[in-house]
């Protein structure tokens, strides 16, 4: 398959997945968690580069450790996840910058989708599809527990399990998205589409759909523009998202 | 159906958080069809008691519900911002997709005008409802799956003074129509006198228990709220 077409498919698919998961993160006021988590991926990415492993696995492993750490610490201590994420984020970023080989640092920080291979399709597409299906399946407790944790628990729903599954999926999409936007900007790809969709949606189904749609749109248009003008795709994808958000403000409901 | 059977029996219930005693040695029974009020100052452990009854917090002693009893819980606080993208229809559909059931539940809570329901309730963002409308919607949601018992934390929190009576009247009406058992937490002793047939006064310990007219005597009120004041007194609690 054409390399450019591969870029477009992967970029769009990741945009859709990030937008969809991001809609629930914004709903749950986890915007900053997504942003900070993406930085945690850097040391894992660095180790993967050093040992010539697929960077996705390195990033995902680092994110998993962070997610489990945050989840466990949040249960065991009274620190808020904002604080915990802040701690993980800064130390991991510092460690990552030291570990990442100098020539690859820029790519790790800002992504480079032009490096994807056709084989990446077989990893990305099924994972994004699975994520969307799982998030959809747990969308009811995700939304309800945002409204009231006690109400959700009283219905016999195990919120801890739901939260954990959700954090895992967040880790997964961030690890995938690093190829598109890099670790520094991945947070934007989860937050911006959702924020734009929230501006123009009254109901949940439209909101989550539009969020996924805007994510995909940002990926698609961003990569096309970057290709046309020979720019780094990551920042252009994020900027496209920013433009979509500005446009949504005009139609705010 | 046996009218007088105990639907809930609580024996020596105690709850501790981090070694701090929140509830101590509570024993009471709730009969089928009761309107059972729980009163006490802020920080008395009323909400914790509800959570213990629901099995959401670790406790000592026993909480025994009649077998196969279905319980709905309406918490005091919901975090729903004005821009929370969820319509009332979607909220109701979390429990059932059956439109007839949803309409019946809304009718039961006094939202009856078809046009109003379609245009101003169901397709409305839930965060845009007024306090009174929101409370009705939550009650409708609570009765959607035909519970036997409703635990209601501060039914009139966030409702205008005039609206309080309406909500309590509604609760009373539902109890009569649907053979419900109602447990509610309240600050408003007038409402407790008027609507409850049993009351439990709580300030970590059980201070009084029984029919409101008997149980809420001056000694109990003093122990509950301190001093001579019968309305608001500032109370210090160990944190």
CATH architecture classification of the largest domain in chain B: 3-Layer(aba) Sandwich
The arrangement of helices and strands of chain B along the chain is EEEHEEHHHHEHEHEEHH
Spans of chain B of at least 5 consecutive residues whose pLDDT stays below 50 are none
**How does the helix and strand content of chain A classify structurally?**
mainly alpha
- Per the principal axes of the C-alpha atoms, what is the gross shape of chain B? globular
Might you state the CATH topology name of the largest domain in chain B?
Rossmann fold
Q: What is the typical, i.e. mean, pLDDT of chain A?
A: 88
- Provide the CATH top-level class of chain A: Mainly Alpha
Q: CATH superfamily of chain A, called what? A: ABC transporter involved in vitamin B12 uptake, BtuC
Total helix count of chain A?
Answer: 11
Distance between the termini of chain A: 43 Å
How many whole angstroms does the radius of gyration of chain A measure?
Answer: 17 Å
Q: Tell me the strand percentage band of chain B.
A: 25-35%
Mean pLDDT of chain B: 84
Oligomer: heterodimer
What would you note in describing this structure?
The complex is a heterodimer of chains A (253) and B (239). Chain A has eleven helices and no strands. The model of chain A has no long low-confidence stretch (mean pLDDT 88). In chain A, helix 1 packs across helix 9 (159-199) and helix 3 (55-76) crosses helix 9. Chain A is mainly α and 253 residues long. Chain B folds into two domains: 1-70 and 147-239, P-loop containing nucleotide triphosphate hydrolases (Rossmann fold, 3-Layer(aba) Sandwich); 79-145, no CATH class. In chain B, 35% of the residues lie in helices and 26% in strands. Chain B has nine helices and nine strands. Chain B has a six-stranded mixed sheet with strand order 5-6-7-3-8-9, with helices on both faces. Chain B has a three-stranded antiparallel sheet with strand order 2-1-4, covered by helices on one side. In chain B, helix 6 (161-178) links the parallel strand 6 and strand 7 (181-186). The radius of gyration of chain B is 18 Å and the shape is globular. The model of chain B has no long low-confidence stretch (mean pLDDT 84). The chains are: A mainly alpha (253), B alpha/beta (239). Chain A binds chain B through residues 27, 140, 143-144, 146-148, 150-151, 153-154, 197-198, 201-207, and chain B through 51, 54, 56, 71-75, 77-80, 83-87, 89-90, 94, 123-125, 151.
């Amino acid at each position: 398959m054409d390399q450019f077409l591969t870029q477009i498919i992967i970029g769009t698919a990741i945009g859709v997945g990030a937008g969809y998961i991001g809609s629930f993160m914004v709903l749950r006021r986890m915007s900053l968690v997504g942003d900070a988590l993406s930085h945690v991926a850097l040391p894992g990415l660095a180790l993967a580069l050093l040992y010539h492993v697929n960077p996705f696995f390195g990033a995902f492993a680092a994110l998993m450790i962070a997610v489990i750490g945050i989840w466990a610490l949040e249960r065991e201590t009274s620190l808020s996840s904002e604080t915990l994420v802040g701690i993980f984020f800064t130390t991991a970023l510092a460690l990552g910058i030291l570990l990442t080989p100098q020539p690859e640092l820029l790519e790790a920080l800002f992504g480079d989708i032009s490096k994807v291979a056709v084989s990446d399709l077989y990893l990305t597409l099924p994972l994004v599809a699975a994520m969307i299906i799982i998030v959809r399946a747990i969308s009811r407790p995700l939304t309800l527990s945002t409204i009231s944790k006690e109400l959700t628990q009283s219905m016999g729903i195990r919120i801890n399990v739901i939260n954990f599954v959700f954090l895992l999926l967040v880790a997964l999409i961030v690890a995938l998205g690093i190829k598109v936007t890099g670790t520094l900007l991945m947070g934007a790809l989860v937050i911006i589409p959702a924020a734009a969709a929230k501006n123009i949606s009254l109901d949940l189904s439209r909101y989550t759909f539009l969020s996924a749609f805007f994510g995909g749109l940002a990926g698609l248009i961003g990569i096309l523009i970057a290709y046309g003008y020979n720019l780094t795709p990551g920042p252009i994808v994020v900027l496209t998202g920013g433009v979509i958000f500005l446009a949504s403000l005009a139609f705010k409901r | 159906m046996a009218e007088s059977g105990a639907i809930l029996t609580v024996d020596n219930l105690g709850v501790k958080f981090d070694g701090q005693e929140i509830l101590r040695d509570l024993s009471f029974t709730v009969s089928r069809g009761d309107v059972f009020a729980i009163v006490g100052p802020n920080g008395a452990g009323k909400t914790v008691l509800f959570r213990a009854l629901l099995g959401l917090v670790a406790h000592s002693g026993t909480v025994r519900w009649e077998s196969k009893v279905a319980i709905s819980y309406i918490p005091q606080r919901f975090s729903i911002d004005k821009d929370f993208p969820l319509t009332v229809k979607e909220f109701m559909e979390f429990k059932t997709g059956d439109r007839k059931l949803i309409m019946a539940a809304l009718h039961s809570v006094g939202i009856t005008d078809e046009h109003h329901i379609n245009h101003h309730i169901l397709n409305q963002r839930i965060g845009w409802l007024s306090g009174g409308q929101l409370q009705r919607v939550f009650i409708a949601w609570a009765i959607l799956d035909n519970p036997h018992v409703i635990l209601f934390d501060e039914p009139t929190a966030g409702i205008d003074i005039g609206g309080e009576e309406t909500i309590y009247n509604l609760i009373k009406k539902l109890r009569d129509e649907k053979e419900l058992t109602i447990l509610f937490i309240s600050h408003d002793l007038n409402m407790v006198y008027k609507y409850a047939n049993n009351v439990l006064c709580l300030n970590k310990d059980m201070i009084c228990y029984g029919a409101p007219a008997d149980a809420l005597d001056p000694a109990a009120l003093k122990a509950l709220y301190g001093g001579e004041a019968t309305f608001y007194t500032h109370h210090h609690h160990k944190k």
